[in-house]
Specification:
Distance between the termini: 33 Å
Largest sheet: 4 strands, parallel
Number of domains: 2
Order of helices and strands: EHHEHEHEHHHHHH
Oligomer: single chain
Structural class: alpha/beta
CATH class of the largest domain: Alpha Beta
Number of strands: 4
CATH topology of the largest domain: Rossmann fold
Strand content: 5-15%
Number of helices: 10
Amino acid sequence: MTSGSVMLVDHDQLFSAALAALLEEEGMAVTSPLPSLQAAAVALEDGEGPTLIIADPAGLDRQEEAEPLARLRSLAPDARLLVLSSDLSPNALGRSVAAGAHGHVSKGASFNAVLRAVKLIQMGQAVYPAMAAQAMGQAPMPATPVADVAGNGEGADLSPRETQILACVISGHSNKAIARRLSITESTVKMHFKNAMRKINAGNRTQAAIWAMEHGIAPMA
């Protein structure tokens, strides 16, 4: 295992692949994204020793009713942990704090915001939303707030529908699932996605997801 490596644990493998590619462009060593706690446990027990784990607890399997984040912390107590989640509720933030996570950032934040959080956590700081302490009824935490940035793909002249479809693509939805969610036909989804791909100069869905993340388009759950 390369020193200073990053491990991604997220059931959404398209999102993880895009994030991994972006982090690697920043010179970070990223292991193959893992879809479950079980896969992470196997990798860690086999000797992988990341210095940072980025995880979304939503959708991760539970073992013996243990919280996924607590389980990750027990498996890799020396690694720093960043929670990247669409859930910014007081309960979710409380679980991150209770598990000893070093940060909790919106999954809808721009890649630049996520990258800033990663670098701050690697430097030993804590990164939580500014409202976290107030929401949990606690005194202010020694944390650095990271603003949620949900942009609209400025610079590519995307239509609102094209932006919606890219948001669904980041979330890993198929064309059929996107059509159901937006109440349009699958052929209409393909048309808008093809137009969006042309505008952002992407050759496949992963490249499109990477572009969307870089430009602050938030995943659509």
